[in-house]
Design goal:
This protein is of the alpha/beta class. It is built from six helices and ten strands. Helix 3 crosses helix 4, helix 4 packs across helix 5 and helix 5 packs parallel to helix 6. Bound molecules: adenosine-5'-triphosphate. Adenosine-5'-triphosphate binds next to strand 2 and helix 1.
């Protein structure tokens, strides 16, 4: 049986103040298991980024529990959350977020440095992560010398180099053309074959569908359905829950 990497139980999140107060999540439960690629899809404003931020310990829920590899985040200090995040989570964003003055290798190695891992082997680990994403020939290139797809591959190498078990990607293909988008999804799907790793991709992009094990649909802060993706043979469609039932 595959291991639960991230478990979110009955998550609620209220954002903003006064008249701008929004209930972004209204009782969301979601488990990400090792060896799975999950797509999170839903309309703009439905709560996808809020949920990804809570799963990755960037944001704390108003109510509910998150467990990362069995460790609960409830009551953790900001420092405790940062430790959990560094140990277990790798993020990939639409706009890459690379340091422009560092080479590809240095961008990846920096993650290990931040984690206090400074041995000579960190260079080899960073190089191995770049090889995983097909960039063994671009160690010394600066982000401005790389295409968008290559920059995103550096960002993925950075997300996996720390041997984190949850890879959370927010619209990773949105800035890329079809070919590069496919290449990025192929790399993420390859990572998701590891039974010790779970990959969650927030996306609007229908081109990502063939890479999914599961497609989770969110509307108005609630999970409204789940379908088995093309990568999985067994169909596990759950009944749809109306979005507006209190
Ligand atoms: N800091 C904030 N203060 C107040 N409301 C917020 C804040 N951040 C997000 N929201 C609101 O919370 C809801 C969920 O936002 P979220 O960004 O999670 O949606 P999303 O599904 O990721 O949208 P998109 O696809 O457009 O990125 C939206 O109504 C949004 O306007």
């Amino acid at each position: 049986m595959s291991t639960p990497i991230v478990e979110a139980i009955d998550i609620e999140k209220t954002l903003g103040e006064g008249a701008g107060r929004v209930q972004a999540l209204r009782g969301v439960s979601l488990t990400l298991k090792g060896g799975e690629m999950t797509l999170l899809m839903g309309p703009s404003g439905s709560g996808k980024t809020t949920l990804l931020s809570i799963l990755g310990c960037m944001l704390t829920p108003t109510r509910g529990t998150v467990r990362l590899r069995g460790e609960t985040t409830t009551g953790a200090s900001a420092e405790g959350l940062a430790r959990l995040r560094r140990s277990h989570v790798g993020f990939v964003f639409q706009s890459y977020h690379l340091f422009p003055t560092l080479t590809a290798l240095e961008n990846v190695r920096l993650v290990l440095d931040v984690r206090g891992e400074r041995g000579e082997d960190t260079r080899e680990r960073a190089a191995a992560a770049l090889t995983t994403v097909g960039l063994s020939h671009k160690h010394h290139a600066f982000p401005r010398e790389l295409s968008g797809g290559e920059q995103q591959r550096v960002a993925i190498a950075r997300a996996v180099v720390g041997r984190t078990s949850a890879i959370l990607a927010d619209e990773p293909t949105a800035s890329l053309d079809s070919e590069n988008g496919q290449a990025i999804m192929t790399v993420l799907a390859e990572i998701a074959k590891d039974p010790e790793r779970a990959v969650l991709v927030v996306t609007h992009d229908p081109r990502t569908l063939p890479f999914a094990d599961r497609i989770v649909r969110i509307e108005d802060g609630r999970i409204v359905g789940e379908d088995a993706g093309a990568r999985r043979a067994i169909v596990t469609t759950e009944p749809e829950v109306p979005a507006h039932v209190p």
